[in-house]
Amino acid sequence: MSAIFNFQSLLVVILLFICTCTYIKSTYPSILEVRDKHSFSGLPRKAAIIGERLSPWVSASCLAMGLYLLFIKD
After folding, report:
1. Is residue 61 included in any domain, yes or no?
2. Count of domains forming the chain
3. Cα(35)–Cα(53) distance, rounded to whole angstroms?
4. Which of 2, 20, 22, 58 is deepest in the core (most CB within 10 A)?
5. Do 51 and 22 touch, CB atoms closer than 8 A?
6. What is the pLDDT of residue 44?
7. What is the dihedral of CA 59, 64, 67, 73, to 10 degrees?
8. Is the residue at 35 inside a domain?
C-alpha cells in the first residue's frame, strides 16, 4: 500500500523527511538555499526549519514511532 493512503506510513515519511532535511541543512547548508521560499522547491527548507525549531518534539516523535514500529505493530 502506498504511504499516501496509510496514515501511519505517511507520518513516518514526514518525520524522516524533516529529520533528513535538518541533517542536510546542518551539514551542507548551501544545498537548501533557494530563492523562491514559497514554492514547492522551498519545502525542504521549511522542513529543516521545523526540525531546528521543534527538535525535541521531532526527536521524541521519531523515537516513539520507532519504538511503535519495532515492538507494537504487527
Report:
1. yes
2. 1
3. 21
4. 22
5. yes
6. 86
7. -140
8. no
